[in-house]
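Narrative of accomplishments. A recurring question from our advisory board has been how the design workflow behaves on a single, concrete structure rather than in aggregate. To address it, we present the structure tokens for one chain from the evaluation set, followed by the sequence designed for it. No filtering or post-editing was applied between the two.
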């Protein structure tokens, strides 16, 4: 079997499903487990640090691990960096069959830090049986020194190992998400998968076709029919499913198909279609004609010429802002300042005699949109309220990146159409 430690909502698992294989995930978070169950993934709800290793010995082909990254991530307090020497000590001890976790945990500033050492406990037990055949691990870039320590141990045990930083955008993910990766194998030379995409499209050469241009948010969200897509506009609060994860900001969304409809390009311009056009919509756009659900809103071709949508990564002054025609920045959630919103920016080319209207309000990204930008399917069954869903999405491994990493180990080709990004 394939063992997936800290399995989360199923980034690795969905990639394996696409490749025709299944894993068994160990995960503690209730809502991630519910998401996995709804997606049909095998899961044990348990604490990875407490679960015994003996049930896996003699039956594990591959081991996957993405320990929680909050203690190491730049999005948090990064106390994991303070605890780094303790984590390195734990890895060294576990690789020599010395379990000093209790003592080291007591000294940690962030109790999650030591979870990054847990995969070594499983690897040691499996190695005694000549397992696993391969290993794949992922974390935030600051964990790369720890992966190098793992690599040194695995090489002593007969593995070929590669460690380094990969950009998810280089593999077709519509997000410039950089991650520290460890790949190890007993039966093949470990190396990173060849990139399929580049920031600028490459021409065909004597060696074959060049890499395609990075996938934009517009392409991933299915907004590629026009240069400047216009979102659905409607009034009212967000859909059900629990409170907003962040109480600040607008509660409108660009594309919540459940109760907001979608924009549709027409030959005469860009038409907004909405299932709800309440008083707020009318007040903003100078009409009292609240059309029924089956009729389109008025055409706003002038608006389309004057504004272009972009994604702002958080509420801070130095937040990353990316045009819809680019990949997103790294998506992370779980803190009020990390709320991602769509914002309108002046179009590059403005009509000479036009005075741009007031910019539309920022619009909250939906869980569905965030999932698509992580390369999960549009109908992926995220469980929990909005805060719990966003937390799962932000911490997940992009399935498309995971598939590129896993396909060589499984000796399965990854087909270009295996992942359909557009909604």
């Amino acid at each position: 079997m394939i063992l997936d430690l800290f399995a989360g909502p199923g980034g690795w698992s969905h990639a394996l499903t696409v490749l025709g294989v299944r894993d068994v995930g160990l995960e503690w978070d209730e809502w991630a487990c519910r998401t996995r169950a709804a997606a049909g993934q095998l899961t044990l709800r348990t604490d990875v640090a407490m679960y015994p290793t003996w049930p896996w010995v003699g039956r594990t082909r591959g081991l996957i691990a993405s320990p929680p990254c909050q203690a190491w991530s730049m999005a948090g307090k990064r106390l994991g960096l303070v605890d780094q020497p303790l984590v390195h000590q734990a890895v060294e001890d576990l690789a020599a069959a010395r379990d000093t976790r209790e003592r080291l945990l007591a000294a940690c500033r962030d109790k999650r830090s030591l979870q990054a050492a847990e995969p070594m406990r499983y690897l040691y037990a499996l190695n005694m049986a000549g397992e696993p055949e391969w290993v794949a691990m992922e974390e935030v870039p600051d964990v790369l020194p720890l992966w190098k320590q793992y690599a040194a141990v695995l090489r002593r045990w007969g593995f070929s190992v590669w460690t380094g930083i990969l950009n998810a955008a280089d593999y077709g993910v519509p997000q410039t998400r950089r991650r520290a990766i460890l790949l190890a194998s007993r039966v093949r030379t470990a190396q990173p998968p060849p990139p399929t995409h580049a920031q600028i499209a490459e021409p065909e050469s004597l060696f074959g076709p060049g890499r395609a241009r990075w996938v934009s948010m517009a392409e991933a969200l299915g907004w590629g029919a026009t240069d400047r897509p216009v979102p659905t506009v409607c009034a009212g609060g967000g859909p059900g499913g629990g409170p907003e994860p962040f109480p600040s900001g607008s509660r409108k969304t660009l594309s919540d198909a459940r109760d907001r409809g979608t924009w549709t390009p027409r030959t005469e311009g860009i038409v907004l279609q909405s299932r709800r056009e309440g008083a707020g919509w009318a007040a903003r756009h100078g009409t009292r004609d609240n059309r029924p659900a089956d009729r389109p809103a008025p055409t706003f071709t002038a608006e389309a010429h004057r504004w272009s949508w972009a994604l702002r990564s958080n509420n801070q002054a130095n937040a990353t802002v990316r045009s819809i025609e680019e990949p997103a920045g790294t998506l992370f959630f779980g803190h009020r300042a990390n709320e991602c919103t769509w914002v309108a920016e002046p179009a590059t080319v403005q009509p000479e005699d036009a005075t741009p209207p007031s910019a539309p309000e920022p619009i909250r990204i939906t869980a569905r949109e965030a999932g698509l930008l992580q390369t999960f399917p549009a109908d992926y069954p995220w469980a929990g309220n909005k805060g719990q869903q966003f937390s799962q999405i932000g911490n997940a491994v992009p399935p498309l990146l995971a598939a590129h990493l896993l396909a060589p180990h499984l000796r399965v080709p990854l087909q270009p159409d295996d992942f359909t990004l557009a909604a």
